[in-house]
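Q&A FORM
Asked by: J.P.
Topic: structure of Acyl-coenzyme A thioesterase 13

PROVIDED:
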Amino acid sequence: MEADSLQTSLAWLHDVLRGKIGHGLDTRVLEGLRVVHAEKGFMRFDFVVPDGVSDVDGNWNVGALASLLDLLGGVAIFSFANRVITSVDFNVSYYSTAKIREHVEIESKVTASRGKLIHVVVEVRRKGNGELIAVGKQWMASNKLTVAQLSNL
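REPLIED BY: S.T.
REPLY: Here is the structure written out as tokens.
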């Protein structure tokens, strides 16, 4: 029996947060991330921008923010499709800066599924006033293999 895709995607995310899998950069970028709500294809997170991802001016580094958008988009898509996925198009729009230790809310949701292609939108907003900081839009292609099947190869 195949594992529930939502539980599998959340377990993967928690393993990345604990540094058990992925790269050190992934763990650093997601440090302190908290899942507020999760369902298949939709997730909401609470996040305080950690010290380790600042630029020279004390702002959230745009590369670190883009990495977070990519990772959380992938988690939402996996929860929806239960498949190994590959980015085929990734676009980030930055609307405002965020300072280190600033509190933000992140929402990641699957917005389209077209055959093997799945689209996700990840929005980052300032907690309190809801000001938009960044939006990531991503198309990913799903592989026919599940994570369990891939690990058995």
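FOLLOW-UP: The chain has a mean pLDDT of 91.
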